[in-house]
């Protein structure tokens, strides 16, 4: 049985959200269905086969940590969060055990991701031992979360600025990536960038 860690990227500054009128210090603590957005993501990871679950915090650290209080997740602080997503990827990988076979990168602003999707990505990774990464797709569009195999960790650590897993996957050969087509209802494309996105999620129309 392979071991895959989950890394929840929750350190960003939520600039677009606040510039568009969002009142929260970070969009990740905005309430959706009675709980903070980031808590939905962490709970989905904990309900899956991933272990451990690492949450990378930075901007509004106290608010994000309060939003996931009581959950058995490891907190990793990224002091360089202002430099972009790549620094959070590095911080998350640094907090994973040395014996994991891969790390599943979850965006803290994707509250509709479910444990069944995470486990499907892990199953696909285990079924293809030569794969370096696994990504979900829907309607011809590649989405999130993305599973990075250990072979990619060094390259992931060399990402800079706002580069994340998407940039890394774009540099790979197609034969190195397993892409699984997800059925309707498995939301791999929606994230909360603006207050209007949040309003759509609250209204059940995304």
Q: Look at the structure and give the mean pLDDT.
A: 95
Assembly form of the protein: single chain
Q: Compute the number of strand runs.
A: 10
Shape: globular
Overall CATH architecture: Alpha-Beta Complex
Structural features, described:
With 206 residues, the protein is of the alpha/beta class. It has a single domain, classed as Spore Coat Polysaccharide Biosynthesis Protein SpsA, Chain A (Alpha-Beta Complex). It is 31% helix and 21% strand. It has 8 helices and 10 strands. Strands 1, 4, 5, 6, 7, 8, 9 and 10 form an 8-stranded mixed sheet that branches. Strands 2-3 form a two-stranded antiparallel ribbon. A hairpin with a 2-residue loop joins strand 7 and strand 8 (141-142).
Q: Summary?
A:
The protein is α/β, with parallel strands linked by helices and about 210 residues long. It has helices at about 15-20, 35-45, 60-65, 85-95, 115-125, 155, 165-170, 195-200; strands at about 5-10, 30, 35, 55, 75, 100-105, 135-140, 140, 145-150, 175-180. The strands form two sheets. Strands 1, 4, 5, 6, 7, 8, 9 and 10 form an eight-stranded mixed sheet that branches.
């Amino acid at each position: 049985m392979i071991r895959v860690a989950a890394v929840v990227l929750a350190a960003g500054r939520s600039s677009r959200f606040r510039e568009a009128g969002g009142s929260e210090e970070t969009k990740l603590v905005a309430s959706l269905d009675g709980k903070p957005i980031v808590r939905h993501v962490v709970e989905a990871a904990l309900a899956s086969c991933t272990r451990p679950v690492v949450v990378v915090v930075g901007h509004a650290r106290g608010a994000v940590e309060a939003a996931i209080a009581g959950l058995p997740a490891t907190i990793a602080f990224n002091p360089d969060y202002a430099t972009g997503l790549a620094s959070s990827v590095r911080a998350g990988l640094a907090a994973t055990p040395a014996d994991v076979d891969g790390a599943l990168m979850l965006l803290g602003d994707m509250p509709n991701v479910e444990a069944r999707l995470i486990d499907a990505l892990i199953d696909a990774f285990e079924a293809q031992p030569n794969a370096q990464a696994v990504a979900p797709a829907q309607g011809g569009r590649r989405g999130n979360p993305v599973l990075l195999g250990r072979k990619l960790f060094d390259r992931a650590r060399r990402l800079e600025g706002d580069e994340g897993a998407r940039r890394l996957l774009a540099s790979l050969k197609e034969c190195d990536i397993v892409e699984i087509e997800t059925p309707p209802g498995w939301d791999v494309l929606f994230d909360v960038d603006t207050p209007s996105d949040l309003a759509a999620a609250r209204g059940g129309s995304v």
